[in-house]
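Hi R.,

As promised on Friday, here is the backbone we talked about, encoded as structure tokens. Could you run it through your design pipeline when you get a chance and send me back a sequence?
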């Protein structure tokens, strides 16, 4: 059975809840052999809950061009979950205009401030105590490091780069 993007067209949490429940049902109740394609990284926790589940992903390599960084999809299956998303690269390949990509990168950087960079994938379906410990605010150094890691220098205009420097300076001074 091939299941592709269950929950598409719904809100993020509705889609995630539906995808998790359906994947869980297929694995535990139906015990079916299924390939479940999804962008919900939270579903990568299922192998720790259900015997017989596994995570795989298609490998990709980022190219670091001066003018135009990109991505090459290797079409090679690798074990484990993917370690990052390549949405902006895929949008560039699809022909999304450069200014729109820069705007998306700026918005992503704003959203990413709310993300805790500890390389652990936190389970949205875990008990409340687990969520409380995962929700601890990052230290100032962690916040600055996360902000720096989110910057794609090749996508910034000179004005955006200057604004980002001022933002980082404010973060240091706080």
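Update: got your reply. Pasting your designed sequence below so it's all in one thread:
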């Amino acid at each position: 059975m091939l299941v592709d993007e269950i929950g598409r067209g719904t809100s993020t949490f509705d889609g995630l809840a539906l995808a998790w429940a359906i994947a869980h049902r297929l694995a535990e109740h139906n015990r079916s052999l299924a390939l479940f394609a999804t962008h919900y990284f939270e579903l990568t926790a299922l192998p720790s809950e259900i015997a017989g589940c596994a995570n795989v992903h298609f490998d990709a390599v980022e190219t670091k061009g001066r003018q135009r960084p990109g991505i090459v999809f290797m079409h090679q299956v690798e074990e484990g979950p993917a370690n990052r998303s390549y949405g902006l690269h895929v949008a560039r390949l699809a022909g999304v205009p450069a200014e729109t990509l820069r705007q998306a990168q700026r918005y992503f950087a704003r959203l990413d401030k709310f993300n805790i960079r500890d390389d652990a994938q936190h389970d949205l379906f875990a008990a409340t105590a687990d969520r409380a410990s995962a929700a601890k605010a990052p230290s100032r150094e962690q916040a600055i490091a996360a902000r720096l890691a989110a910057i794609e220098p090749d996508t910034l205009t000179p004005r955006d780069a200057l604004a980002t420097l001022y933002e980082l300076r404010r973060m240091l001074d706080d």
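One thing I noticed while checking it: The chain has three domains: 1-54, 55-96, 97-174.

Thanks again,
M.
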